[in-house]
Write a structure and sequence with these properties.
About 30% of the residues are buried. With about 400 residues, this protein is an alpha+beta fold. The mean pLDDT is about 90.
Amino acid sequence: MNDSMYYAMTAIVAIILLVMQNHDIMFRIVRGKMDTVWIYYKILLYMMLLLHSTDVVWGVFSVLKMRNVLFVDTLFYFASMALCVLFWTLYSVRYVGKMGVAAKLLQGFSCLFCVVVMGLVIANIFGPVLFWIDENCTYSTEQMRWYIHSTQIMLLIAISIYCFMSYFRKENSPIQNRYRTIGWFGVIMSSFLLVQLWFPLLPLYTVGYMLGACMVRTFVVNDEKEEYKHKLEDSLAREKQQLQDLKDMRRAAYVDRLTGVKNKSSYVEMDEHKAIEMQKGTAEEFAVAVFDINGLKFINDNYGHEKGDEFIKSGCKIICNHFKHSPVYRIGGDEFAVLLEKEEYAKRHELQDSFNAMMDQHNIDGDIVVAMGMSDYNKESDYTFNDIFARADERMYKRKRELKNNKQERA
């Protein structure tokens, strides 16, 4: 196989690796503001793509002996080389640190280098300043090429020194290794370029950029993505914790501390919600049950408030165990309310009868007694939630007196 085809194949491999590794940066459309550093790096990738493409063109058309195409292709080669150096400098300096004197000098020198090379490329159109290609498509160089490559080597070494100095200043920093990688990129490029001075037809420049781009992708870009991923996970974890804290705060605001059931604030919110539904005519069937624990004052007066709290908790447990699928609200010291809907609304009379029967037995046995009153929502006559509650409350007090009288009669 012709040496030129080896040259082209090397460049094709470099293009494939470049696109495979960096397609997310090269072809992704970023909505919103993109960091200037990564704009420079994106342009650098395109300049590398152009540089490798000139090598492919050179390999193919040197076999075809198309002198004019090779001449134009070589002009693009030198132009893309200068642009690669320019955008590598801009990326490296901006990524590594603040815009100090050294950074400004490096950027200024790389801009000057790029302008000079572009001028020489234009001049070469009119006469051999950098190179020439004879009738046999043999590539030959002028002395100026040596000066350009030597200057490029010195510039790459200077950038590497700048990066390594920043590396040592960032001791124990998570980005320290990224600075070192950028520094090694310049070392690799300058080393391959140094050998290229004596072997101009070897694809060493392409190989150098191929290795350097792989290093940056692996140890800089991927490392940044991993860091961003961890930051995002930490942020999501904090947001999740904040959401849980808000839920806990809401729960604390709407839950009774003593019994663990819904408190008066929760009841008021439910009351307002039901009132709105009733006004709109969208309220479904429901009933309200009101409860009062008998004998709390006696317990508090004779055994203390701690025993009284235990008495309230025991009474609440009785209500919760009986109305398992309905919300229970503590609306006063020993007063509770239950909202019956759907399944338990359909069984409300059975639940009331069984609860009252249980309390009658408790009244006989001397256990905790809870009086209950219940009322259904009537669409025709009830305009506010309090209308229903008032009826249930009245029936509860009637039941309370009934239980008290039964107890006295037995005494």
